[in-house]
Amino acid sequence: MTADAGAAPSGRLEAVSLVELAVRRLRSEILNGALAPGERLVEEQLTRRFGTSRAPLREALRLLGQQGLVEHLPRRGVRVTELSPRDIDELFSLRDVLEQFALRCALAPGATPVAAGLAAMAEAVERMERATEVGDTLAQAAGHRDFHIALVTVAGHRHLLGVYEPVILKLQLYMATNMRREARERPPIAGPQRHRLLYDAVRAGDLDVALAELAGHGTRTYLAPELQAE
């Protein structure tokens, strides 16, 4: 391979890494609360702060938009995604119904939970526990989101998962906020422990216990009053 042949891939990797670094940093700041819902993201300020050009920053914002963490508003720029209290309540309620349905499908008499889903639930809980031990809020938020996706995956219902994923995408910021605030009011490990109890019930095939754990899951208990629907 000539020197010229290797130059282009090297340059491309460098450009991609700038986008990835911007995505990781902004995602971390959004999920750990440093950037609040509704906060405007000004390109000039971010390029100065990150020491990057506009092109990788704009690509990072585009990717974060696909992930549901920022929204692009016509003639008003970009801001951290903000949902109304009614939107939050409706989405959490819809999430609850879809998860209950997933459990009823997976744990019905004669049904067998999808093994890959169970394994993913166990792995997500372990990640949440490890992240809590070291205070990594970003990793805990990722594990939390992945746990709930895995919970629905155990049903083996492809169309259900297709309906569920957009809901969890829109809620991930508020799920992370809820977990973070719970850790300030209760022992930090309480959140992962709730999820482990739910996983244990699903693994044991006990529908009644799993539904009871899900009902007491505290999906929005620690959200601020102004984020609760009237």
Features:
single chain; 230 residues; mainly alpha; Arc Repressor Mutant, subunit A; Four Helix Bundle (Hemerythrin (Met), subunit A); 9 helices; 3 strands; elongated
What does this structure look like?
α1 (3-31) packs across α3 (54-66), α5 packs antiparallel against α6 and α6 (137-153) packs antiparallel against α7 (158-185). The protein has helices at residues 3-31, 43-50, 54-66, 85-106, 115-134, 137-153, 158-185, 190-204, 207-215; strands at residues 40-41, 70-73, 77-80. It folds into two domains: 3-80, Arc Repressor Mutant, subunit A, CATH 1.10.10.10; 85-227, GntR ligand-binding domain-like (Four Helix Bundle (Hemerythrin (Met), subunit A), Up-down Bundle). The longest helix is centred in the first third of the chain and has 29 residues, at 3-31. The chain is mainly alpha-helical.
- State which percent range the strand residues make up: under 5%
- Uncertain ranges: 1-13
CATH topology type of the largest domain:
Four Helix Bundle (Hemerythrin (Met), subunit A)
Please give the radius of gyration in angstroms: 20 Å
Question: How many DSSP helices?
Answer: 9
- CATH secondary-structure class of the largest domain: Mainly Alpha
Looking across the biggest beta sheet, what order are the strands in? 1-3-2
Kindly name the structural category.
mainly alpha
The averaged pLDDT comes out at 87
The major pleated sheet works out as: 3 strands, antiparallel
Span between termini:
66 Å
Q: So what's the overall shape?
A: elongated
Second rung of CATH, namely the architecture of the largest domain: Up-down Bundle
The share of residues in helices is over 70%
How many distinct folded domains? 2
- How many E-type strands? 3
The succession of helices and strands, N to C, reads HEHHEEHHHHHH
CATH-defined superfamily of the largest domain: GntR ligand-binding domain-like
